[in-house]
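in:
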């Protein structure tokens, strides 16, 4: 089974990417997480940032497609991501080591549909950056 945690790329530059993940009831992992209160698992929130970071690396050099997560620092969850929500992920390349290890900073914000003209509003919680999750992808992505 393969999970694709990027539904759309909104912006991409050599050192920054902004993506969106739409969460729907059709995603099978929501059936068990949690029964009666489905939410996107926190590990998938992190993985969405990793997918965005990898997409950014591949954008600048296709040979970098096999990089994997080496660590996470200073992670803070601020709110739940529920079916019907969209999660906006922003990842910035902070440091490039020897061309094999990269450090990124990522954040995510929940965008909930409103039916208004703009179509969405950001929902904040508990002072977390962007109301979602915030943290550096420490150790960066290393070559596999």
């Amino acid at each position: 089974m393969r999970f694709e945690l990027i539904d759309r790329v909104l912006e991409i530059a050599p050192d920054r990417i902004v993506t969106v993940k739409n969460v729907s009831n059709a995603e099978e992992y929501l059936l068990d997480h949690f029964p009666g209160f489905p939410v996107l698992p926190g590990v998938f929130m992190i993985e969405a940032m990793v997918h965005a970071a990898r997409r950014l690396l591949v954008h600048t050099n296709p040979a970098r497609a096999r990089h994997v997560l080496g660590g996470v620092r200073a992670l803070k969850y601020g709110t739940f991501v529920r079916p019907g929500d969209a999660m906006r992920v922003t990842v910035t390349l902070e440091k490039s080591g020897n061309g094999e290890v990269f450090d990124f900073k990522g954040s995510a914000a929940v965008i909930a549909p409103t039916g208004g003209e703009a179509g969405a509003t950001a929902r904040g919680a508990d002072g977390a950056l962007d109301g979602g999750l915030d943290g550096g992808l420490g150790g960066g992505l290393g070559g596999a």
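note: The chain is about 15% helix and 40% strand.
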